[in-house]
Amino acid sequence: MFKILAFSTLLVLASARPQAELISYSHAYGNDSQTIKAEPATVVVNNDVSFGQAVDFSAATSLTMLTCLKKANYKTVFVRALSPAGNGVFDINAVTTIRNAYSAGLGIEVYMTPQPISSLQGYQQFDLLYNGLVNNGITVRAIWIQVTSPANWQKSTSININFINSIIARAKQYGLTVGIYSNQYDWNQITGNWVTLSSDILLWYWNVYGPGVSGETKPNFTDFRAFGPFKNASVKQYGQAESVCQITVNRDVYAVGIPSMAKSSQEASAFSKNGEIVVGGFVGN
Ligand SMILES: *[C@@H]1O[C@H](CO)[C@@H](O)[C@H](O)[C@H]1NC(C)=O
Ligand SMILES: *[C@@H]1O[C@H](CO)[C@@H](O)[C@H](O)[C@H]1NC(C)=O
Ligand SMILES: *[C@@H]1O[C@H](CO)[C@@H](O)[C@H](O)[C@H]1NC(C)=O
């Protein structure tokens, strides 16, 4: 069994790009102009307690799939809750996936893939995500904003900065922890290497050689180099387009949050208030 994943043709082969980042397809912008087979991921052997293993995806999932992920030693899932379709829309798969992940005992983080070319401002797209979750009884404590695939952004870096700022300001107004999902190349292209971002913004960076197991980099932060405003990383995406438990996912490692709760902090139950599902707060810095 294998899954077919659709990729956009954003094969940005910019010469300035570091060698390790030659492929800039965007897994989050489904486009079937290029299809590849997602090969099975290698087994997680989690013997490094300072890292949690995670996957990120936007596909619809079942409880069986998420229970399988938990058994396969994944601690947390990063679930897309805003899709860049149209002007940016709440991701209808998110609520079911979050409920299933909660039932499976997985930690849950949510990310948004905003639509920078939209009649909706950044904060309005954030509100679609936030209200979509809250109206379904889900408490949101953190948000990750995807800033990748420069071709999908405005040409003006100052417009892009204002757009990102609009999302961050709204999320902070609601008391959320905010993280950015990007890398040095994307950040430079999209924001012109914006450095004055507030230092409390977390970073989830990606580095892969290409899709599949053979395109993976190390599942730790040893390849991280500071860029833009980011001195440290909290999450790394080290694999893309692999199949785990019949879901096509990207693979991540993250610094575990709340040291005093190190053992239980990744358990969704530790973040439950009166049975209410809480997303965000599983990642440290
Ligand atoms: C997919 O990408 C190609 C090339 O960029 C584009 O022409 C096509 O319209 C896209 N398809 C969809 C469904 O977005
Ligand atoms: C990072 O991962 C690689 C490959 O698994 C391993 O050889 C290396 O020792 C790791 N580095 C650290 C600092 O954990
Ligand atoms: C973050 O950076 C600081 C120095 O700027 C360093 O002391 C700390 O160990 C780093 N944390 C991680 C998780 O790498």
Concise synopsis of the structure shown:
With 285 residues, the chain is an alpha/beta fold.
* Average pLDDT metric: 84
Using only C-alpha atoms, the radius of gyration works out to: 17 Å
- Determine the N-to-C terminus distance: 37 Å
As a percent range, the share of strand residues is 25-35%
Q: Count up the helices.
A: 5
For the record, the count of structural domains works out to 1
CATH architecture: Alpha-Beta Barrel
Q: What's the count of strands?
A: 13
CATH fold topology: TIM Barrel
Structural class: alpha/beta
Query: Which CATH C-level class is it?
Result: Alpha Beta
Give the topology string: H per helix, E per strand. EEEHEEHEHEEHEHEEEE
Which stretches are low in confidence, meaning pLDDT under 50 for 5 or more residues running? Answer: 1-34, 258-270
Adjacency order of strands in the biggest sheet:
3-4-6-8-9-10-11-12
- Can you say what the CATH homologous superfamily is? Glycosidases
Q: What small-molecule ligands were found?
A: 2-acetamido-2-deoxy-beta-D-glucopyranose
Give the overall silhouette. Answer: globular
Main β-sheet, in a few words?
Answer: 8 strands, mixed, barrel
Helix content: 10-25%
